[in-house]
Amino acid sequence: MRRGPPRLFNKKEPEMTQCCIFDLDGVIVDTAKYHFLAWKEIAGELEITFTEKDNERLKGVSRMASLDILLSLGSLDLSEERKSEIAERKNKIYLEYIMKLKPEDLLPGVERFIISLKEKGVSIALGSASKNAVTILRQLEIESLFDAIADGNNVNKAKPDPEVFLKAASMLNKNSNDCIVFEDAIAGIEAAKAGGFNCIGVGNPELKDKTEYIINGFDDISKLEKIIERIDTENIKEKTQC
Ligand code: BG6
Ligand code: MG
């Protein structure tokens, strides 16, 4: 049991983490499998071989950039018009899966963790490449937990560009070093780092080459608090050295 007032995430302490920005796909809910099924159907129609390993390359990447990767696997060069039609069709297939999502599909512990952050005064933002982000949050019944939503509809540059995270931080009037980003994709970690954010990798052991902070998931809040305490300590050290 914690003694005294919570040391972490204290809004009154400017050096402490003030905002947590969550990627959506792979951090809050596992939609990668539905992206895969939808792209696999498209790949079949285009006679392109597309495996789960190939799908890893699409994680965190925008819809059109994902299509470009798929087409490059089949060495196909299509007109912009044809590409838009295919992307639209892929999204239609994807949405059929997404509309079946329910609160039970939230990844274990993530909702409880977000609620615990909010209780400590930490602002919560979404930083996702998806244009379907709000639909997904509504299906999961957690839209109201977010103080800001930056997604594929209000940014121009896809991860690994930091735009989506910078947008989320600016919506909350925060600096990047006051925020922690939670990400499962390499492109997302690169985006967070490029924007000057602290970043915790979620679920994918390969991320350890990209960030020193890795968690398996959100089940272990005490481990998460320890990591965040370390990040805060580093931040305080840095700020007091300047
Ligand atoms: C990201 C996914 O969150 O959203 C990518 O990791 C996906 O795989 C991207 O391509 C865009 O999603 P949407 O919903 O706009 O097609
Ligand atoms: Mg992701």
Describe the structure using short key phrases:
binds 6-O-phosphono-beta-D-glucopyranose, 6 strands, 6-stranded parallel sheet, 242 residues
Distance between the termini: 35 Å
Shape: globular
Strand order of the largest sheet: 3-2-1-4-5-6
What hetero molecules are bound to the protein chains?
Answer: 6-O-phosphono-beta-D-glucopyranose, magnesium ion
Share of helical residues:
40-55%
Number of helices: 9
**From the alpha-carbon coordinates, what is the Rg to the nearest angstrom?**
19 Å
- State mean pLDDT (0 to 100 scale): 90
Secondary-structure element series: EHHHHHEHEHEHEEH
What does this structure look like?
Helices cover 44% and strands 10% of the residues. The protein has 242 residues and is an alpha/beta fold. The chain has a six-stranded parallel sheet with strand order 3-2-1-4-5-6, sandwiched between helices. α6 (133-140) links the parallel β2 (123-127) and β3 (148-150). α1 (32-45) packs across α4. The longest helix is centred in the last third of the chain and has 21 residues, at 221-241. Mean pLDDT is 90; it is low at 1-12.
What is the gist of this entry?
By secondary structure, the chain is an alpha/beta fold.
Helix/strand layout:
Blueprint: E1 19-22, H1 32-45, H2 52-56, H3 63-73, H4 80-98, H5 110-119, E2 123-127, H6 133-140, E3 148-150, H7 163-171, E4 179-183, H8 186-194, E5 198-202, E6 214-215, H9 221-241
Parallel strand pairs: 1-2, 1-4, 2-3, 4-5, 5-6
Helix pairs in contact: 1-4
The chain binds 6-O-phosphono-beta-D-glucopyranose and magnesium ion.
